[in-house]
Automatic annotation (TrEMBL):
Organism: Pseudoxanthomonas taiwanensis J19
InterPro entries listed in its UniProt record: Cyt_c_assembly, YpjD/HemX
Protein name from the UniProt record: ABC-type uncharacterized transport system permease subunit
Gene Ontology cellular-component terms listed: plasma membrane
GO MF terms, alphabetically ordered: heme binding
Coiled coil: none
UniProt record, GO biological process: cytochrome complex assembly
Transmembrane parts of this sequence: 12-33, 45-64, 76-95, 102-121, 136-158, 186-209, 221-239, 251-270
Length: 277
């Protein structure tokens, strides 16, 4: 671990990309935080000028690692976390540019910066060459996790906003968020998109993964299926019974915890605790 850290710090070109990307992420988050503190519903476009290069440099760093490292795409623990963080930052940028949900960047951009730095400092591991089917499965999984992680952040924001309105604490930052109904609508649209991606992830896993036992995928598959059932139950409850508010928040966060345990929990135990690929 010490050798990997020293090698990462000595890699000047890669370290420069990481530092510039992290600084750009934090600049974008700072601009959005200042706009929220002033209660501005529209934070302007200055934050985009920082967020866009950050996401591009984040992607360039992963491409650089893929070019330098033999084997297939690096899908190990810290790399997967960094890719999910990049996906969250990219989706936040796209959604925020069209409306008042740029406030998500206050949380998503620093998280993406931290995950990128953690990946660089941990070092890179040679991966097994994967066929296009397993690569498709892996990329669908990462995209599904990033989308549903955005949904979890929206659920937390919805809960905070709802509690603030009930207590009649109309703080400055509250005015920078969209109306409660608009935020709730965006939450369910995001869950719907993430649920579709998660469904494709599970389907490609069933079709393309050959041996679940030898690859230690049983517990991951069970937890992923439980998360899929919870998200599906929430969408059904929304369509059939009009579920909203606290119930929607609890179901969303429960499903997200199961999904995190399914992928990153299992990868953490297998790769970092047990030392298995």
């Amino acid at each position: 671990m010490a050798f990997r850290l020293a090698a990462a710090l000595c890699d000047t070109h890669a370290m420069t990309i990481v530092l510039i990307a992290a600084l750009a992420y934090l600049t974008a988050a700072g601009l959005l935080f200042r706009a929220m503190g002033q209660g501005r519903p529209q934070p302007g476009r200055a934050w985009l000028a920082a967020a866009a290069p950050a996401v591009l440099l984040h992607a360039a760093y992963h491409l650089l690692v893929a070019w330098r490292t033999p084997g297939g795409p690096d899908m190990h623990f810290f790399s997967a976390l960094s890719l999910v963080g990049m996906g969250m930052a990219g989706m936040t940028m796209l959604v925020g540019a069209r409306g008042r949900m740029a406030a998500l960047g206050v949380f998503a951009f620093p998280l993406a910066a931290a995950l990128l730095v953690a990946y660089h400092l941990h070092g890179h591991t040679t991966s097994t060459v994967l066929g296009w089917r397993l690569q498709l499965h892996a990329w669908l999984a990462l995209l599904a996790y990033a989308t549903l992680a955005i949904a979890a952040m929206l659920a937390v924001m919805l809960r905070i906003q709802e509690r603030a309105l009930r207590r009649r604490t109309f703080s400055t930052w509250l005015r920078s968020l969209p109306p409660l109904t608009e935020l709730e609508s965006l939450l369910f649209r995001t869950i719907g998109a993430g649920f579709a991606l998660l469904s494709l992830t599970l389907l490609t896993g069933v079709l393309f993964v050959e041996d679940f036992l030898s690859q230690h995928l049983v517990h991951k598959s069970v937890l992923s299926m439980l998360s899929w059932l919870v998200f599906g139950g929430l969408l059904l409850g929304r369509w059939r019974y009009g579920w909203r508010g606290v119930r929607a928040v609890r179901w969303t966060l429960t499903a997200m915890v199961l999904l995190l345990l399914a992928f990153f929990g299992s990868k953490f135990v297998l790769e970092l605790v047990l030392g298995r690929p």
